[in-house]
Amino acid sequence: MVESILSTEMKSVTAAAQMLLDQMCYLEEVGWFQAFLDILLASEYTGLHDAIKEWNFQELEQLNEHRRFLERIEPSITKHLKPSELIAHMSGCLKPRECEEIQAAETEDMLMSSNNSTSVAEEPGSFTGTQPNINTITSPESACVWPDVTFDLCTGKPERSGERKLREYQKELTAAAVQGQNTIICAPTGCGKTIVALAISEYHLKQFPEKAKIVFLATKVDVYEQQYKLFKEHFSSKDPNIRVTGMCGDMDYLSVRWLIEHHDIVVMTAQILVNALQSAEVPSLEILSLILFDECHNTTGKHPYNNIMTRYLDTKLTSSTHSLPQIVGLTASVGIGSFKNGLEAENNILQLCANLDTRVITTVTEHKDELKSYVHTPEKGHHPFIRIIKNIMSNIEQLAQKTFNIGTQSTPPYNREYGSQKYEQWIVSVQKSCKVLQMKNKDEERRICRELYNYTEHLRKYNDALIINEDARTKDALDYLDAFFDQVRNAGFDETERKLTALYDCQRPQLLRLATEGEQNPKLDELKFILEEEYHNNDQTRTVMFVKTRALADAMKKWIDETDSLKFLKPGVLIGKGRKSNFTGSGMTPNNQKGILESFKSSDQSKMLIATSVADEGIDIPQCNLVLMYEYVGNVVKMVQVRGRGRAEGSRCFLISSNKERIAKEKINMFKEKMVEEAIVQLQSRPADLSNKVLHFHRMEDKARRDHISSSPEKPKTQGSYELLCSKCKKFACMSDDIRVVQGAHHIVLDRSMFKRCTTAPHKNPRAFSGFCKKEKMLCAECKHDWGLIASYLTIQDLALLKIESYVVQNCVTRRQDYFRKWRDVPFAMREFDMTEITPETCRPRDTAPDEV
């Protein structure tokens, strides 16, 4: 690992530092933290040493504004000031060693500059290297040097000679083009691709001083005006003899052919050239020597770019002799079209390359660090908060892999889609498989299952947090994680959980800062606007908003309650009764659901209901006149059901989403709904035909199959004995023979010795239901996993009510283990509870339960 960090440092100091910190999180040796502090102090990182030692980063955070200021003035400093002139005034800031390194680097740069000046003097105004013919592929050794191409890389204006050359990454982007190859130059926005285009044009003019005819194409008039201005200013200052002109849509009185013939460079919108080719004013693309396509990813379908290239390819493929121009495309991304996997993405890129007749995609590979220092492009989904969470998840996966190869339990989703429903499904599948993992060494089995349960549970929570961050506020995602870790600390908190909690605690100050400083989610701005507008127009509006998850429902309620202009809505939350996990996000009972609905229907207090899928079918909400689908899309049936919640006259339905695929899916649903409606009308207009077709289907159906389905009995239950083991640590809980069913729905244990194997905690919401009175929560004594409830029933005190999803069921004979989420699926038979079974032994208080046998 040390070698890997040192190797990374040669490429990126920041990445190497991140690797070092990541690995430090897993150190277990006694005294490593103090050793780390000592090294910081010895290396004279006194500010960082003091901040970490006191765990107070206020002074360092106050430097952020100064850092941003330095980033802004860096180009001017590096251009106009010599480091040696500054060092004398910074002796209190820099270490002697750092001063020496700066002076040595400056001396080296001066020597290199001197050598370059000599080279330029020998061949003024020339380029070294081979000058290939157009469309001739040459070796990398012939790549040119740029001794006299100088630009202001911020404005695109020419600089005075010798002040600054092309940046190294920009030279790299020109490499294929100056060798005469057709190429797509793909580099991020803001890196100076137009500057690269200017340099390529300048080199091309020098290669072919009498023959060069260059056209630079733009997609829009405003882009054309910007690029034309840059080309005009650059070449008028560089070489007034180079003739540059431009033409866009409102200048059709000019002759395109005349402009090309009498100028060296013509900047124009693409449709101008298409029109000239279609009218034969420009007879062929062969009168050009170089075409530069700005935003070349548009070269698809019926776009003017593709029209031009279709003519190009027709000429190339149908004529054995031609002199077609070199093609250079410029774009920030080649990710065109839709694709579901890497292969489809490749095919789309290949199609773009084929359309532009290029075999080369040019990107920055050798000078990435320099590129990053000038271009600060935010990556979608890679906000620092997201990057930290994803990094923690990656580390947890690695820890889990060291315990057991979880990849063998379930195939991981493509490209590790953290923060997605697919990842949630995968990790749930892994967790379920790990619960029934069996080994010869039972102690080892219990240890591994417990560790894997912890790892997968934490991965689920981090995945939830990413989803909340995507759709709500970063603050809500952090609150969700804080609540989870509070519960973890108050539960078993074993060695694995302590390690995972430390991993979170180490990053939490940074996460808190990001949550505090982060910008508002634009989707929330849109939602706020809709609600304010609707309630301004009608203060009696009743709203139901559908969301994907329970955690998001809670986050949205919190946001509305904390938003001054919306808190009057006092939203209620309606979620399902199921439980997602044993920690945050538990479900609602039918009585809770009924109370929330009644409050929304009959009370003026709550004007809004935030619901998951539990409310999209069957629940009657007659007063609702505004339905909001917040990143909530299903199939056609779900769409109709959700929209049907708005039953008041004049009701409206909005989809709020930033996901293009989700929006497209909803449009498809709307189209399919119309198809269904039309099909119904058609069938209703032909009742006899409808009847005959139904009869035909009946005859086609296999009657024997129907009979078999209708007569199939319930899955038989065995009378054999089974053990119920804790699904987290595999400790024995009880025997299936001791379980009784009360009122056909509740499962109690008569064996009082079970209380020796569990512990209890106060219940947050003690209440009565169906003759039961909840008293306490029942937890595994070993790992504090939630086992169910302690309750009284009628006159009987202290009964254990079980939750089947908290246990693994093991056959006492075969030792096979299975996991079930519903009692109806268990393989063993259970007797109905009979009051005659109650004896003085079963009524004994739990603190006097007999010792286990």
UniProtKB/TrEMBL annotation:
GO terms for biological process: antiviral innate immune response; cytoplasmic pattern recognition receptor signaling pathway. Pfam families: CARD_2, Helicase_C, ResIII, RIG-I_C, RIG-I_C-RD. Belongs to the helicase family. RLR subfamily. GO terms for molecular function: ATP binding; DNA binding; double-stranded RNA binding; hydrolase activity; RNA helicase activity; single-stranded RNA binding; zinc ion binding. Gene3D superfamilies: 1.20.1320.30, Death Domain, Fas (1.10.533.10), P-loop containing nucleotide triphosphate hydrolases (3.40.50.300), RIG-I-like receptor, C-terminal regulatory domain (2.170.150.30). Its EC number is 3.6.4.13. PANTHER family: ANTIVIRAL INNATE IMMUNE RESPONSE RECEPTOR RIG-I, HELICASE WITH DEATH DOMAIN-RELATED. Residues 174-352 form the Helicase ATP-binding domain. It catalyses: ATP + H2O = ADP + phosphate + H(+). It is an enzyme of class 3 (hydrolase). InterPro entries: CARD_dom, DEATH-like_dom_sf, Helicase/UvrB_N, Helicase_ATP-bd, Helicase_C-like, P-loop_NTPase, RIG-I-like_C, RLR_C_sf. One of its GO terms (cellular component) is cytoplasm. This is RNA helicase. Transmembrane segments: none annotated. It comes from Cyprinus carpio carpio. Residues 712-840 form the RLR CTR domain. Keywords: Antiviral defense, ATP-binding, Cytoplasm, Helicase, Hydrolase, Immunity, Innate immunity, Isopeptide bond, Metal-binding, Nucleotide-binding, Phosphoprotein, Repeat, RNA-binding, Ubl conjugation, Zinc. It is found in: Cytoplasm. Residues 523-687 form the Helicase C-terminal domain.
